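Exercise 7. Predict the joint structure of the components listed below.
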Amino acid sequence: MFGYNRRKLLVASVVLATGGLTLSAIPAQAFSPRMEVGVSSTEIKLGMTLPMTGTASPGYNKIPSAVKAYFDYVNANGGINGRKITLIAKDDQYVPTLAVAKTNELLLRDKVFALLSPLGTANNKAVASSVNPGRRRVPVLFVNTGFSGFANKKAYPTTFTILPSYIVEAKIMAEYIKDTFPDKKIGLLYQDDDFGDDALAGFKQAGLNFAIKVPYASGAQGIAGVPATWIQKLSGAGAEVVVLFGVSSATGAALGTAAVLKYGPKWILGSVGGDATTIKALGVPAGVLYNATGASFLPATSDTTDEYVALFQDINKKYNNNAVFDNNVLVGMNTAFVTAQAIKAAGTNPTRRSLIMAIEKSGAKFASAGLTPLNFSATSHTGYAGYWFGTYGPTGDLKPNGGAYTVYTTDSANGAVVKSTYKRPAMPTKGLPN
Amino acid sequence: MYTFINTVLIGITSGAIYSLMAIALVLVWRSTRVVNFAQAGQALLSTYVGYACIQQFNSFWLALIVSMLAGALIGAFIDAVLMRTLFRRVSHGPIAGVAPIIATLGLLGLIRAGLGLFVGNQDVIIRPPVSNVGYTVAGHTLAFSPLKLVIVSTSIILMIALSILFAKTNLGLSLRAAAFSPEIARLAGVRVDRIRTLGWAIAGAAGAAAGMLQTPNGNGSFSPDSLDFSLLLVFGFIAAVIGGLESLIGAVLGALLLGLVLAFVLTYISGSLVFITAFVLLILVLLIRPQGIIGAKRGRRA
Amino acid sequence: MHKIKSTNATRLLFFVAIGVFFFLLSNRVDELRVYQGATLAMYVVAISSLILLTGYSGQVSLGHGALMAIGGYAAALSHEHFGAPIWICFGIGVLAAGAAGAILGTAAARLSGPYLAGTTLALAVGLPSIANQFTILGGEQGLLFDVGFPPESLGPDFTQYKWYFWIAGLSALISIWWLQNLLRSRYGRTWRAIRGNEVAAELCGIHIGRSKTLAFTVSSGLAGLAGALLAMTISTVSPSAFPLALSFSLLTGAVLSGVSTLPGVMIGALTLVATPEIADVIANRIAASESVATNLPGILVSALLILVVLLVPNGPVEQWRASRIRKSANTHR
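Solution:
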């Protein structure tokens, strides 16, 4: 390629230069969009990046088909203002470099209208600063991470969060523990990165003291012998109540190892690693989970008396090959549900700008399965901010303590934890956006 | 005291698991001078065979044997079809040092993606054949169970049996000769190609045992995306390098050292330090003894 | 052979022409291609660093992703804490990774083959988790590395990605040009002598350990530059941006390029960038199910890797050149 011969090099240089000049002489394509990018008269395209293969994918890889299932249901009922909603999901393997590359493909080639529920803190941060949807005015709806920073409207002007932040979760959990187990020794297992740091900050703010805190390096749960060292430290410190604030695989490893080491404290599971189906799929016997405490902001997946759960289970049957209906599916469908309403609220010819304004204006009134209100406003891009506590049954179903959902809310800052008085409005007819 | 004893037990049992993989890597290295990254993929594939067998006949022990046989066949197949061609085509130049590594990495990816395609990316579960609940001594539960006893004994039996095979039998002599100097061995009438394939087959069986035993020792679930198999490969490889890559006893000792050091660091210093500890330990061992704990002085020339 | 050896001046002219060509091209293609061009240039630098190490000095590294991480973090830290100008940041990235490479290389020079592979593999697995131990490194979400907007003099239509592409492209051109010269120098000959036969090289008075360490250091410095470029294209550095898979894909790229032929480096980089896209297109074309679509890229990359190692182990460029030399030898007989 770099040749041997001077004349050839010269000729090649001339050819290259002329080629370049010719290319630059072709007029740029004239292009004036009448409709917003990603919106046609029949279709609205949304894009999502998340790990669909690789070690971070289990559980999360159920989300795209759940979201698609709800959109298929909407499309089968006439779509939104006559337009079908389609989702293009791309696999980023939980690597920021890939998340940026795939997001660029979504925006620049597939020309999606908005980004939906992109997953992971590091990935979202890389996308926010490199692709910069904020400057491109592309809405990033409902990022799938509990890192509270993304609700900062100044730094991420087009981004909306939906999950309660890790800080909110830790603060509420701390109050619950102080109320329920006042004189017990408390232990904590947490991931030694930002996920865990946020949790530690929340616990500290709520004034909960731990007898022992065990950090683990992300990924180390898969190494033989490592989970046994956690359990040994927790039991050695005599912890009677143990908070597992980690990903599903770490939660599963801790529960399984504790069972073989005959260590049985009162377990409290954080929401990230607390999906019973995922834990059971890891091979942890359901009995281990029995009587543990868990938390959620959506109704329990087994609660068919809830109109949303009933509808979503029905959609799951018809449009999602009757996949196992777990929290990932529920969260995915609920996110799609909120998205459909946002698009509807954005007007008959939605634009990216009108979508953002619609969420800021009426997002707090969107119907959703959530048991706490959505906190969207012109000044707030924060979604849910509350949790209820429940107990896992013998088959691993989470049931609310006391038979009814008692929801506590707070914020990611210094606000107190209060009991919510929110009463969820009835579901719109047939669960379609109104 | 109780914590100390349990830490030792955790170190020994996890070392036993790394050692099964380390033995497999050492066997392939000894017979063909290849660092076999596909070993994790082969173990994964064999474990799937074992899983299918359990589904069919509901017997773990039968499945273990079938999976080891399958592992041996897979290993032999890879050597006979892929590696032999590779060695014929790539015998010299800078690529000769990297080609086998690249080929086995490619194979690892192919096995994973292929399994994802044909059996799906979801988890399947293997339950332990004997109890994994720890023994109780004087009111304390030990980090040692019947299943862990099986794992440790398997590792020791494999090590002793293979050592005897190498040291005392004609077959072992041929294996060593084929690895040490293929040309001379060929002149002496050793069927070098077949003997090397045999080395791959034995390694495949050992890797299958590692996969079949390590899976129920955790929670029992595995999938083509399992982090566990990659980590098993990485830690097995580190153990094998610490042990000197040439000797089976070295591999087992390296694995034990790695297991014990990790258990003590995680218990007494910090749970965050897993990966860094493994790296530092490897560097320290190699700085003091570049040829590993048990390695012939000239053996390290690739 | 009647060929005239090209002079430095004409070679430089050639590189300038390539530069002009790509810069003009970047005005004509859409923004996605420009972004991919920046990634491509980053891979060119990273792969050439590995080619230098493996192809020219005969050492194997499975941990170049970790050295890239060092470069990326050093650049981001110097930008964040000292507000250093962007070019200085890249320089610091190169120096930091080079220094780490010198230390590692000193240890590595004593090791060969599988021992070196094992050490570098452990480095790739172990290093990223350090980011969570020190708050200055920003934990899992990492640090921002914003090289800033393009200068206003380039006009209002000059996009951010074009700016990234210019920086990465220029870095790649300068690196390759410099590397070509280095390989033609005394050092290059020394490395090739060692690669050819260590004992013979030693008998000729070459200090093996020192030369290998030097090769490792230079290669690490280049990897550091690639790391800083990667950090630029995603505007952040975080541990998960440098997974083990990155180190492996660089090796893949090096083999596809032909480990001992620097000119082939574009082929390797292009394959790394294009394969996932080709897999996407195929999956869409055959309207594949989700499990096919998610696993197809893996199957394609792996199969390609095995086939290349088996069929054209020295890389397509080397193969082509060898067959041309054979042909021209026949015609001149």
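Discussion. Chain A touches chain C through 53 residues (CB under 8 Å).
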